[in-house]
Each structure stands twice: as structure tokens, then as C-alpha cells.
Amino acid sequence: MIKIAVDAMGGDYAPKEQVEGAMIAIKKIPDIEITLYGDEVEIRKYLTNEERITIVQSEGVIDMGEKDPIRAIRGNRQSSMALALSSVRNKENDAIVSSGATQALIAGAHILVGRLKAMKRTAIAPLIPRVDGRNTILLDAGGNLETKPEYMLQQATFAAVYAKEIMGEDPKVGLINIGTEPGKGRAIDKEVFDLFSETKNFEFVGNIEPKQVLDAPCNILISDGFTANIVMKTIEGTAKGIGKMLKQELTKGFIGKIGALLSKGNLNRFKYRLAPEEIGGAMIYGLKGVVVKAQGSSKSNGFYNGIRQAALIVRNDVLGKVQSILESDVK
Amino acid sequence: MIKIAVDAMGGDYAPKEQVEGAMIAIKKIPDIEITLYGDEVEIRKYLTNEERITIVQSEGVIDMGEKDPIRAIRGNRQSSMALALSSVRNKENDAIVSSGATQALIAGAHILVGRLKAMKRTAIAPLIPRVDGRNTILLDAGGNLETKPEYMLQQATFAAVYAKEIMGEDPKVGLINIGTEPGKGRAIDKEVFDLFSETKNFEFVGNIEPKQVLDAPCNILISDGFTANIVMKTIEGTAKGIGKMLKQELTKGFIGKIGALLSKGNLNRFKYRLAPEEIGGAMIYGLKGVVVKAQGSSKSNGFYNGIRQAALIVRNDVLGKVQSILESDVK
After folding, report:
1. Structural domain spans, chain B
2. Quick one: pLDDT band at residue B273, thresholds 50, 70, 90?
3. What's the whole-model pTM score?
4. Are B256 and A234 a contacting pair at CB < 8 A?
5. Is A14 in contact with A46 (CB distance < 8 Å)?
6. How many CB atoms lie within 10 A of CB A188?
7. Which end of chain A is more exposed for a tag (fewer CB within 10 A), N or C?
């Protein structure tokens, strides 16, 4: 049995959507057990089937808009997020899924789960949609400002194992840059280019301009934490803005209104493809346990996807495989 | 009369679209004269009206895919781009419009037109579309990798004059960052934040996350050349990718196909709104003359928009106004 800790109190619609997502997961995935960390009275309002589900009472919640996440997690060791994280450290659970505040989860995972020895920096790796219907792993979207080429090599290596084991694809890594030719970019980009050109951990396809961000010839796109975070947010902002413009334009005129009405089903499917929560969660790389961040705005199905993803990461032993590659790198 | 130099040979569809764009401009703008720099035989194939248009014969073209633009421009002083640039330096013309290779135009403008004393770095400033139908100036999209807070202050000051004089709006400047709170970002972002908070040259609205890139509460968005170039290319890539996904989804099923057909007019208007060439060109800031870069893929109407923009910049004396503000800054 794979044991999953669920932070039932984190997220915009907690605990309802988290509890419902957990019940969906139990129904669909036969080899998992779930522990819900949260307020038992609140949880029981939504829990209609306790099969393979346990509740652990917590005290307090890390606020979604928390300004000082490190202090919040240190000061709330009985919160649902802290208890769920600690249960992974103590091997009571194999993985945790949370849609709580991102920075608190990253900080909490550092403190309570601990970092893999072979990885010098953690990274958060959301999946972005592709034109061909598959996904691209974006690294490091956590806004980790200080980085080094060797840290980026470790992160890309982790992503390569993830792409192979979880997405079932041949890993190909592209470096986000302002031009495609070798030698483009800042000093760090040139160093990373050289380092990645020599590695045997994955196939490196070279510099990728974000003009190709939704149909790049690779399934892993990497940059420093500042740049990758900017890329992620620019994709989000452009998609939102285009959605608004499309709505403005599509509903102009009588013929246009009828067309928009007939296109409604297809337009909804289009929106669904761009909705980040449908893709699942973002894994935090570099920890001693499996930590998956589901979108704060997750509904039950999005949260279920996060649980499914976490179970798959455990089942395919992603952490063990990453560790053995990185440890042989050091020798 | 405002005198405009047109690089007739630069661009994917040169000289046809450039010549036709020039003729549109002559028809629509009564107070301009145009000199076309290029191959007279080629130009005459498309030139059907010579009113207020002169041709100057050039030799050779700077290739659009030129790998070493600085060498290309130095080695081709008789090229259409070089001759047109030199004519601005010599005061034969007030402005130049080119859809030739961007890096060659920037390098050529440095060498042949020269930099304004009050600005330490040139910058390229494309206009990006907004949800509300207006535009945002993006700085510095030229990929200028080395920057300093004071250079960014000069560039934002230039943009503020441009926003006021050319776009007719109250200039508001936002700093592209990974979070909205003061203190977010890298060392340079914090320094710029402090410097911009004190300036009287424009209103500073603080940090802007690119989640808002198409509807930010400002008309000028600035970052270092690397980051702004990444933002520009991510917008482009996301818009292109979404366009492809939309096409895939919209044409699914019989009802969907009819809907898409009826929506065709509106969808085309939507595409038009996102087409960068319809917005006009990107001005290169920081030069002793007015240099406008039209899109390489410009058709006649897009190129005409670049000429219209150049004429307006000259007519409203943007350079003189920028200089007087920056010079009083120094005192």
C-alpha cells in the first residue's frame, strides 16, 4: 500500500474539495491509503466514505496569503501542513499532497522533510500545457534567486527521471534563452550550456527561445528561478488576457453571437486544456520525501490529480532513481 | 516637412511592402517626404506614384539572418540600411524606418547615428497589446544584458515622454517582478524599485507580476534586457500556441465547425489585435535621431504604421523633450 498524507485544510476551497478529491482517489486507485490532516469536525461534513481513509486532528492553518511563511510554519507545528509534512519525514506516509500556500510548503518541506543530500537546492516544477496535448516541465518556477550551473544540472536530472518514469517520455532538456545559437545569454546561461552539453544524464537540445514555449522540441525547460518564474507568470498572464480578448471579440455582432454559442462546447474544452489544475500538481524536487503542490484553487478533480501523481511518483521510485544517478555523478 | 528615410531593402517582403507602405503614408500624411534607400530597378517595379518620394541607389543588403550584425553594417556602408541611417546623422532626414535585421539596426544606429549624451544605453521598446485595446511599452526588449538602475531610469524616462506625446496617456511605470511586494526580486530589482520610488520623471506603480502582462495598471513595463526579451518572447509563444490550440478545439465536431465558421470574422479580428505589426514599430531609444524598427514580416499596412509613428515622434519633438528632462536630472 502507498500511503499518502493530505493537507486537508490548505487551499481556497479547503477542506471540501480536498476531502472529495481524496474520496475520488480511493475509488480510482486501489493500492493507496490516505490520511487527512485537518479539523475532524470540518472534514466529517464532507467525508461520506471512510474506506482506507484516516483523519488526524490538527490545530490551526497556514494562511494562503501568509507574508512570512517560514515563521508561520515554524510557529504552527500542529497545523495540518506541518503535521502532514512531518508524517513523511517519520515514514508514516510516503508522500504529501497540499494545495496550501506555496512558499510555506517549500519552507516547511525544507525544515520538516529535509533535503536530499545529492541535491543542493530544491526546485518547484509545474507542468505547462503543449500544443500537441502533452506537457512540459518548467524549472525552477519557485523563484529561487540564487543558483549555480551544478544546481541546475541536478534539477534537470531530477526532471529527466520524472519525464521518463511519470510522463513515459524520452527526456529532452532545453535551456530558456534569448536566442538559439550557442553563446547566447548571460554568463550563467553560457556555463549551463557547456555543462549540459557534456552530461550523460539526459539529452540536451540546446537554447530554446520562449517563442516556442508551448511547442518546444523538448519536455523539460529550465532557467534560473527568477527567469522561469517570470516565464510561468507571463504564460498565465497572456492566456488570461487572450481569453478576455477572445470573449470580447467573439460576442460581437449577431452572427458572431450565434457562432460563439455553437462554439461553446469547444471553447470550454479549450479553457479546460489551459487550466493548470487539470494537469495535476507541481512536484517539489530535492526533498527526502515526495511533496506535491496542488493549485491553491484546486477543485476535487484537480486535487485528485495531485494524489494520483504523488502515488505514481512513489510507485515508480523516482526519488531512488534520482539519487542513484546523482550519487554516481559525484564519484 | 518631416523627412523620413525608408530602408526599402530590409524585411521579409522587401522592397514590395516597404514601397507600398511608403505610398500609403504619402497619401495619408500630408506633411512628410520620403526617401527610399534601395535598388532603384527593384523599387520601380512597385512604385506607382512618386509624389514626395525620392529614390537613393544603394549597394547590397544586410541579410535578415546575419550572424555578425556589427561586422555586416561596418562592411556594407553602401547598404540600404547604412545609407538610410547615415542620412539621419547628416540631418538629410529626421527619422528612419527599417524592417531589417534588429541587431544590425541597433548596431548600425549606434555607429552611424550615435547615442544621445544623456542616455548611457540604447533600448528597444516594442508595444504589446492590452485587453482594453490600448498598448503597453515593454523595455528593454533588445536583450541588452548589462544594465544598471540609472540606465533603466533613463529608459523609463524616455518611455514616459513617449507615452505622453505619442500615445496621449499619463505615463505609469511598472517594474516586472516575481512578486508585488516591495523587496521582491534580485538585487537589481530592489535598487530599481528604490530609485524609481524617488524619481519625479514619471509615476511609479511598483512591482508588477507578469500574470498581469496584458492588463497591468501601467502603460510602461520595464526590466533588464534579458528578462524583458524573455517576457516578449513568452507572450509571442503563448499567443501562437494558444492560437493553434484554439484552432484544434474549435473545429471539433459538426456543431463546432458551424460555430467556428460563423465566428470566423470575429476570430480574424481577434488575430488582428494580437498581430504585432498592426501596432506599428518598436522605437530604439537613446539615439541622436528617430529610429523605428518595423517588424521583419511587415506588410504594407504595418510598414505604413511604422512611418506614421516615426513622423509623430518627430512632430512632437520626443527627443528634445527627453533630453531636457535627462539633462536637468544630471544637474
Report:
1. 1-119+286-331, 129-276
2. low
3. 0.90
4. no
5. no
6. 15
7. C
**Cβ–Cβ below 8 Å for A261 and B264:** no
Q: Which of B132, B218, B233, B246 to mutate to test the interface with A (most CBs of A within 10 A)?
A: B233
Element (H, E) at B129: strand B127-129
Determine, for residues B249 and A227 on separate chains, whether the beta-carbon distance falls below 8 Å: no
Residue B49: per-residue pLDDT: 93
Q: What's the pLDDT band for A271 if we cut at 50, 70, 90?
A: low
Task: Name the residue among A181, A210, A265 with its Cβ closest to that of B256.
Answer: A265
pLDDT of B13 above 90: yes
Residue from A249, A263, A279 whose CB has the most chain B CBs within 10 Å, to mutate: A263
What architecture (CATH level 2) is domain B1-119+286-331?
3-Layer(aba) Sandwich (3.40)
Provide CATH code, domain A126-276: 3.40.718.10
Task: Determine the topology of domain B129-276 in CATH.
Answer: Isopropylmalate Dehydrogenase (3.40.718)
Q: What is the mean pLDDT of chain A?
A: 90
Determine the Cα–Cα distance for residues A199 and A37; give it in Å rounded to an integer: 41
Chain B: give the shortest CA distance to residue A289, in Å: 27
d(Cα A285, Cα A292) in Å, to the nearest integer?
Answer: 9
The answer to whether the Cβ–Cβ distance between B230 and A231 falls below 8 Å is: yes
Sign of torsion over alpha carbons A270, A276, A281, A283: positive
pLDDT of residue A152: 96
Domains A1-119+286-331 and A126-276 fall in the same CATH topology: yes
Give how far Cα B97 sits from Cα of B5, B34, B90, B155, Å.
Answer: 6, 10, 16, 20
Largest interatomic CA distance in chain B: 70
Inter-chain residue contact A186 with B260, CB threshold 8 Å: no
- C-alpha cell recorded at residue B317: 519633438
- For chain B, the average pLDDT equals 90
Nearest by CB to B241, from A214, A262, A265: name it: A214
Predicted pLDDT at A272: 60
Pairing of strands A282-285, A53-57: unpaired
ipTM for the complex shown: 0.89
Give the integer Cα–Cα distance in Å for B176 and B168. Answer: 23
**pLDDT confidence of residue B171:** 97
Nearest-5° Cα angle at B143, B142 to B146: 120
> What distances in angstroms separate CA A85 from CA A29, A38, B180, B306, one per listed residue?
22, 13, 28, 57
DSSP A9: T
CB pairs under 8 A between A and B: 190
On chain A, the residues whose CB falls within 8 A of the CB of B240 are 211, 214
Name beta bridge partners: A213: none
Give the per-residue pLDDT at B28: 97
pLDDT digits (tens, 9 = 90+) for B122-173: 999 988 889 898 999 999 987 778 899 999 999 999 999 999 999 999 999 9
Which chain A residues have a beta carbon less than 8 Å from that of B267?
A: 249-250
pLDDT at B277: 46
Enumerate residues 6+ apart whose C-beta is below 8 A from A193.
Answer: A175, A182, A183, A185, A206, A207
Within 8 A by CB and 6+ apart from A146, the residues are: none
User: Span A105-112, mean pLDDT?
Assistant: 92
Alpha helices, H only, A124-224 = 149-165, 187-198
**Taking residues A165-192, what's their average pLDDT?**
95
* Nearest chain B Cα distance for residue A262, angstroms: 5
